[in-house]
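Dear Dr. H.,

I hope your travels went smoothly. While you were away I took the liberty of generating a structure for the chain from your last submission, since the lab meeting agenda had it listed for discussion. I wanted you to have the full record in hand beforehand rather than looking at slides cold. The sequence, exactly as received, is reproduced here:
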Amino acid sequence: MKHLEILLISMKNLLRHPSRTTIVVFCLVVILTPFITALAMLEGVRGDALVSVEEGADLYVTMDMYGRNGIIPQEVADEIESIDGVRKAVPRVISRIYVEGKLAVLLGLPREEIQTAGKIMEGALPSEGEVVVGRGLAQALQLKVGSNLSLGVRVIAIVQHSPQIMKRVFRVSGIFHPDTSIWSSDLILISLQDAIDIYEMEGFVSDIAVFVEPGRVTEVAEKIQQMNAYFRIQSKSLTRQYVKRAYSRKGGVFTLLYIFALVLAIPVMALVSGVGLRERKREVGILKATGWSTEEVLQMVLYENCIIALLASSISVLTSYIWLKVLNGAFLIQVFIAEITHIAPFRIPSRFGFDTMFLALTVCLGVTLVGSLYTTWRTAVTPPQEVLR
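The corresponding predicted structure, in token form, is as follows:
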């Protein structure tokens, strides 16, 4: 009963000072919402990346070229496909490409592989001389179905330090839906032969995606390596490790920087929350004079901070959820993802869970408790007559 009475007193204290309570909660929400939003986006992007890895090939085969990935003969795909345990081997051309100064990803696939992309696009599948572009690229270049898109083939001359590029014009046959993943936003999907022609590498592709029967990846990888010692083979498990490591580092660096910012915010929160003000000291002095122990005073402050933290963390998570899930990160996403103006042309990946709420609550409690418990304890252990003087 004593704990319940202290809790009720804590609630009354917060209601008795609505302005101070509102300001503290508002400040916490302002501090916490970007943190929760960024972490939710990070988890969403990492989750989408891992899904893409799982849905991708089991092995990727290229040639070693000066210690880096190099082009590989297209005919090797047929040889790999004949290996026992291989379901299919898909030759691909994938590269970075600048289109009118905007960085994009060009992906060339055989016609039969492009068929699977038909369900996620507006328009038609690309035939010879046609491309399908991502929503972000289409908006940036003001493209629509039927528009022409010029892709650079090669540099033919340097005039006054500026490259003169031979270009080839393609027709836009389709545009990816906006609810597709972030990876398709700046993608150019094209037939394999057109991609080979763009880079003038007849008979070669950038890599071969190998799909293997379950449980036979290692066996198949060894057989492929025996075909040519200069083959470079990357497995799905290795790709998965790269993805997890990359996003774990990004998340760790962001968390450390934000924790540093929160530490700097603690004195400000202590000032805004009214800790150390004469009124609070007088309240503590009266409680001590009426028989309250130091532990009970600290417990009251703890309950106050728990209530404030619960309110602030709930509002922060809800605000972040609405901003990302409903508004798709409008007017905020450009802070976290480059080259976006106001509204993202694709679905912003994000993930919320119990751990999100727990983290928000923990951060709020940390900020409020560090800024209040010590000063309250200093006041509580001071004789009441000195505090009330």
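Two observations you may find useful: The two ends are 33 Å apart (CA to CA). The chain has a mean pLDDT of 77.

With kind regards,
E. W.
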